[in-house]
Amino acid sequence: MPWNLDTLAVGIDDELIEIRVVALALPLPPILREAETALHTALEETRWKDARLRLIVTDIDAAAFTPVDHASDAGA
Fold first, then answer.
1. Kindly report the CA angle at 8 between 69 and 26, in degrees rounded to 5?
2. pLDDT tens-digit series, residues 10-64
């Protein structure tokens, strides 16, 4: 997932886990769905397994608007 751990802010209580992030890539919907799935999986065996999850995108890094050249990945 394209998240920089230094840009996260987390609030946790028994009923709500709130994570503020700065997006480093677009489009946001599939990235947020992937993050939500990963977080729910990580919380399965914890006391927060039933807590609501709220992901808040507080900013979008300028790098997210820079196209990625996947053609250079073809030879790797």
1. 30
2. 988 999 999 999 999 999 999 999 999 999 999 999 999 999 999 999 999 999 9
| Greatest alpha-carbon span in the chain | 48
Q: How far is CA 48 from CA 9, 11, 30, in A?
A: 17, 12, 24
Given CA atoms 27, 11, 18, 47 in this order, what sign does their dihedral have? positive
Distance of CA 3 to the CA centre of its chain: 6
Kindly report the backbone phi and psi dihedral angles of residue 35, in degrees, each rounded to the nearest multiple of 5, phi listed first. Answer: -65, -45
Buried b (16+ CB within 10 A) or exposed e, 34-61: ebeeeeeeeeeeeebeebeeebeeeeee
Task: Give CA–CA dist 5/16, Å, rounded.
Answer: 20
Q: Is the CB of residue 36 less than 8 Å from the CB of residue 74?
A: no
